[in-house]
């Protein structure tokens, strides 16, 4: 199947999201649609999928003009899309979820037609057992089920919207493999992404979008990555300045024999000291207690034993907990679930940290204008303080949380994957805000899976393995192999 | 032609109530028509029965008060995401506790009697509300189920009291306490033959105060935050448990007040049929009003009028009381249906 978009234009009110974009997608081809948040890549693909109606333009399928007014039309033409948010039912098994979305699903299902439904699952994700409840799958596996759902509808072109932004590195590699496999079976794939890694791993051709326009189209072979970044953001310099460790040596944040029970695993005997101005990176394969560590230090999780001290003063212990302490900044994982009240306005979510200490009748005008300023400074779009935060896109929501937590001086900051879902420029802004806090004397506990970033910007790196600290190394003496061994459960030699 | 923003806003605000009322009238007319009653005549009767003369207005206001208080007692917990169906039980238990004060010292002067009766009624209601609050906060027990069960318990306790130890022997077997003395009644207000008592304006002021508090104050934001994301509320220094218990207790007080007014001023005894389902009608009103303390006031009046008209219709037009339940259901369906349709249409 060959597909061509001709001069697609889409407006949202005043905003021109797609400005006469033309794009060609060949049969069996993997096309990476590369661009920053808000470059218009998702909008363009949602027009193709019939989710949005384009204002003008044409879609040619094998040279013939087709009209796509709804996802149903797109599906009938063999175009499928996997979104960032999954639409699986967690309580049902993989088989049941696939059955629900199967076009010719019979009212009564037995072994025979079950095989037809599961054929593609076996082909593309053989390690997923059909009778596992979806709730028990990892994020990557859920995504694979979602993909099979789309393939079951005879999709010959699959669009993946930022598929690797929610995945751990090894899961992303698995997905890259599946994408190559899709192409090998003659299906076309469009992967919407802002990661060069995705381009490197599986794309044959790259289309770069910037500001709603197609900035360039290049073949992957022999592509200059610096050039791609330049095309994407308009400038090649995206590395943030490195924070310099001050020589103070005062311990600011101290974790003493911290133990804490979690759902999946427990933290046991965590001892860490972070000096004023120091950035301590925490590396580890996800699921080794990172989220629990962040919750424990910020006071959301109850400690069984041990304590967290800030400037020698008890901050969190088995009895006392102060999650609202204004000296502590907290950027949790999954902001929608852990950092904002989705139904409430941006204005209120930005003022949330001080809410209990506000006067009985707070000054709403001031809260509103402060929200406007913060949203401007941290580039949260749309810049509407009255909008419910749950309606922001993932990247903008993350920026909103960053604005709230890092716009005031803190003595300590716990940051859990703070650049998740952000493009290069936004990520750079987050790092800079984080480093500024460090320069002003805050102790930073920075949890990340990106070893390159940890090695470049953290002063020391602690490795978390099975709820314990497997080792702490000065970043200058650490390297990927060494950290990798610790992350896999090896010991310090 | 461009619409002025004020007109647009006004149309926006009034659309659901107006359209909802229209749908309701159409459905009700159809219902009466197919049951062999002339709809036009019945509607006039309903209006007369609700607001036609001093007597019907008095009855309407008398029913509006407990409905209003019970609606407030439902809406307040709903603001933090708690679905309480417990106003009925809180009403009964508040009345029971308040009656204890009356029976303990029936000869006490009004200056002692009224505050003591009121205080005990409020405490009783608060206790009955706080039980599901504590269970929810401490053990995560579903508050809806607990409030429903406690309704039965409170009603049975009142029955036990008035059939048993508190029954006035001079009643000759009629299950009720002795009549409340005049010192144990809320001061009456009367105007052009319409009679009520000071609890009614007080309840309206309460509704307005709650409106201001929930819409404009930090406390309202705290409740909304707890409803939306209790975990994130911790980061704001707002804890679930104390809010949950306090809100449920306060709601209980509101319903408890309704109970004691009903016993003291309306029925003048504590007796088993203390409430004609005011707790549940209040629940409907609260949800009809979308938990807005402002919208609850007129809706409580409408519902009070409907119930009062039902009595009149039963007497004068031989229309069975069950028709009122049908009318309530039709009102509920019309308003909620139009509201839901509008928000769906808006999203699209």
Question: Care to give the gist of this entry?
Answer:
By secondary structure, chain A is an alpha/beta fold. Chain A has helices at residues 41-48, 71-76, 94-100, 111-124, 139-152, 169-184, 196-202, 225-233, 290-298, 335-338, 346-350, 364-377, 394-406, 424-439, 451-457, 480-487, and strands at residues 3-12, 15-25, 30-34, 56-61, 64-66, 79-82, 157-161, 188-193, 205-210, 213-219, 251-260, 267-275, 279-283, 305-310, 313-316, 328-331, 412-416, 443-447, 460-465, 468-474.
Would you write up a description of this structure?
The complex is a heterodimer of chains A (493) and B (348). Chain A has helices at residues 41-48, 71-76, 94-100, 111-124, 139-152, 169-184, 196-202, 225-233, 290-298, 335-338, 346-350, 364-377, 394-406, 424-439, 451-457, 480-487; strands spanning 3-12, 15-25, 30-34, 56-61, 64-66, 79-82, 157-161, 188-193, 205-210, 213-219, 251-260, 267-275, 279-283, 305-310, 313-316, 328-331, 412-416, 443-447, 460-465, 468-474. Chain A is α/β, with parallel strands linked by helices and 493 residues long. A six-stranded mixed sheet of chain A has the order 6-7-8-3-9-10, sandwiched between helices. The mean pLDDT of chain A is 88. Chain B has one domain (39-339): ABC transporter involved in vitamin B12 uptake, BtuC. Chain B contains 13 helices and two strands; from the N terminus they run ααααααββααααααα. In chain B, strands 1-2 form a two-stranded antiparallel sheet. In chain B, helix 3 crosses helix 12. The longest helix of chain B is centred in the N-terminal third of the chain and has 30 residues, at 5-34. The mean pLDDT of chain B is 91. Chains A and B meet through loops of A and helix 8 and helix 9 of B.
């Amino acid at each position: 199947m060959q597909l061509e978009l001709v001069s697609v234009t889409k407006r949202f009110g005043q905003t021109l999201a797609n400005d006469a974009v033309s794009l060609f997608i060949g049969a069996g081809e993997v096309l990476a649609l590369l661009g920053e948040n808000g470059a218009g890549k998702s909008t363009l693909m949602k027009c193709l999928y019939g989710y949005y109606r384009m204002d003008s333009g044409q879609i040619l399928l094998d040279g013939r003009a087709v009209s796509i007014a709804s996802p149903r039309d797109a599906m009938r033409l063999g175009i499928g899309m996997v979104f960032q948010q999954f639409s699986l039912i967690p309580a049902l098994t993989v088989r049941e979820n696939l059955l629900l979305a199967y076009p010719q699903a019979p009212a009564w299902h037995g072994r025979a037609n079950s095989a037809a439904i599961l054929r593609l699952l076996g082909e593309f994700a053989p390690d997923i057992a059909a009778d596992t409840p979806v709730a028990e799958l990892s994020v990557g596996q859920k995504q694979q089920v979602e993909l099979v759902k789309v393939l079951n509808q005879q999709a010959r072109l699959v669009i993946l919207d930022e598929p690797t932004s929610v995945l751990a590195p090894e899961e992303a590699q698995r997905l890259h493999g599946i994408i190559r496999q899709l192409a090998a079976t003659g299906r076309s794939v469009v992967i919407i992404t802002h990661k060069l890694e995705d381009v490197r791993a599986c794309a044959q051709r790259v289309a770069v979008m910037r500001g709603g326009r197609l900035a360039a189209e290049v073949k992957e072979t022999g592509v200059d990555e610096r050039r791609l970044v330049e095309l994407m953001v308009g400038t090649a310099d995206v590395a943030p300045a490195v924070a310099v460790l001050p020589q103070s040596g005062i311990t600011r944040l101290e974790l003493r024999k911290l133990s804490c029970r979690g759902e999946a695993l427990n933290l046991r005997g965590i001892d860490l000291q972070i000096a004023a101005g120091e950035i301590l990176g925490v590396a580890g394969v996800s699921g080794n207690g990172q989220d629990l560590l962040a919750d424990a230090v910020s006071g959301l999780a109850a400690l069984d034993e041990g304590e967290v001290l800030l400037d020698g003063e008890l901050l969190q212990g088995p009895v006392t907990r102060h999650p609202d302490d204004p000296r502590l900044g907290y950027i949790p994982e999954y902001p929608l679930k852990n950092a904002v009240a989705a139904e409430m306005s941006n204005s209120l979510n930005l003022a949330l940290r001080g809410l209990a200490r506000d006067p009985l009748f707070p000054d709403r005008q001031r809260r509103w204008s402060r929200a406007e300023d913060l949203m401007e400074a941290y580039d949260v779009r749309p810049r509407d303080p009255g909008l419910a935060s749950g309606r922001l896109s993932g990247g903008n929501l993350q920026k909103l949380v960053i604005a709230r937590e890092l716009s005031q001086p803190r003595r300590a900051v716990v940051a859990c994957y703070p650049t998740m879902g952000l493009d290069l420029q936004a990520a750079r802004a987050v790092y800079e805000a984080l480093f500024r806090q460090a320069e002003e004397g805050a102790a930073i506990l920075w949890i990340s899976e990106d070893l390159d970033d940890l090695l470049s910007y953290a002063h020391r790196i602690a490795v978390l393995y099975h709820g314990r600290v497997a080792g702490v190394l000065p970043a200058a003496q650490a390297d990927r192999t060494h950290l990798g061994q610790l992350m896999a459960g090896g010991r310090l030699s | 032609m461009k619409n002025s923003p004020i007109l647009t806003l006004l149309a926006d605000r009034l659309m659901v109530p107006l359209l909802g009322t229209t749908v309701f009238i159409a459905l009700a007319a159809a219902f009466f028509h197919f049951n062999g009653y002339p709809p036009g005549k019945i509607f006039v009767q309903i209006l007369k029965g609700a607001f036609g003369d001093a007597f019907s207005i008095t009855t309407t206001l008398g029913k509006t008060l407990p409905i209003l208080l019970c609606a407030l007692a439902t809406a307040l917990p709903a603001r933090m995401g708690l679905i309480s169906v417990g106003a009925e039980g809180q009403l009964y238990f508040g009345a029971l506790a308040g009656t204890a004060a009356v029976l303990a010292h029936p000869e006490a002067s009004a200056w002692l009697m009224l505050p003591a009766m009121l205080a005990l009624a409020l405490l009783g209601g608060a206790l009955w509300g706080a039980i599901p609050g504590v269970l929810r906060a401490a053990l995560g027990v579903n508050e809806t189920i607990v409030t429903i069960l406690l309704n039965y318990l409170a009603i049975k306790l009142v029955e036990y009291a008035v059939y048993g130890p508190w029954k006035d022997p001079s009643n000759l077997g009629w299950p009720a306490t002795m009549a409340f003395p005049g010192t144990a009644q809320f001061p009456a207000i009367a105007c052009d033959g319409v009679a009520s008592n000071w609890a009614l304006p007080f309840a309206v002021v309460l509704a307005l105060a709650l409106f201001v508090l929930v819409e404009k104050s930090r406390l309202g934001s705290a409740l909304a935050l707890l409803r939306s994301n209790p975990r994130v509320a911790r980061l704001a220094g707002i804890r679930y448990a104390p809010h949950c218990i306090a809100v449920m207790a306060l709601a209980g007080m509101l319903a408890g007040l309704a109970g004691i007014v009903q016993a003291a001023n309306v029925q003048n005894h504590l007796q088993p049929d203390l409430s004609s389902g005011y707790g549940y009608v209040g629940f409907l009103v609260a949800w009809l009003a979308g938990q807005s303390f402002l919208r609850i006031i007129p809706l409580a009046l409408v519902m009070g009028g409907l119930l009062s008209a039902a009595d009149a219709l039963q007497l004068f037009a031989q229309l069975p009381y069950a028709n009122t339940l049908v009318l309530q259901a039709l009102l509920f369906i019309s308003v909620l249906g139009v509201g839901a349709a509008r928000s769906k249409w808006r999203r699209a």
